[in-house]
Design goal:
It contains four helices and no strands. By secondary structure, the protein is an all-alpha fold. This is Fe-S protein.
């Protein structure tokens, strides 16, 4: 489910990029929320004595917070102006989402 959350966020990002709209959507927010909640569940030391990879958890949490901030800024800008978000901000959401999924799978 953790990877699915990132896939939802990235899939919504790809759909918006393919349509040329460069907007953040609620689906991206929901995917990010799913990634956060499942990540917290995975990071909890359920059985006693399990060694967790704290550097990986820290890196993923920082990436997740940055993505959340970018999505929040994009949503606020869209509500205020009604226009699409800047391309740099939009691209950063996609790159960071892909990076978070890559860290989850490869590290």
């Amino acid at each position: 489910m953790h990877i699915v959350g990132f896939a939802i966020t990235f899939g919504a990002w790809v759909a918006e990029a393919a349509a040329g709209r460069f907007r953040t959507t609620r689906v991206m927010d929901y995917g990010l929320l799913a990634s956060l909640l499942t990540g917290l569940a995975l990071a909890a030391p359920w059985p006693a004595g399990v060694d967790l990879n704290y550097p990986k958890i820290g890196v993923k949490l920082v990436i997740l917070v940055v993505i959340g901030g970018l999505l929040g800024m994009g949503n606020a800008r869209q509500r205020r102006t009604g226009e699409a978000v800047p391309r740099g901000l939009f691209a950063a959401v996609g790159v960071l989402t892909f990076a978070a999924a890559a860290v989850a799978v490869l590290w």
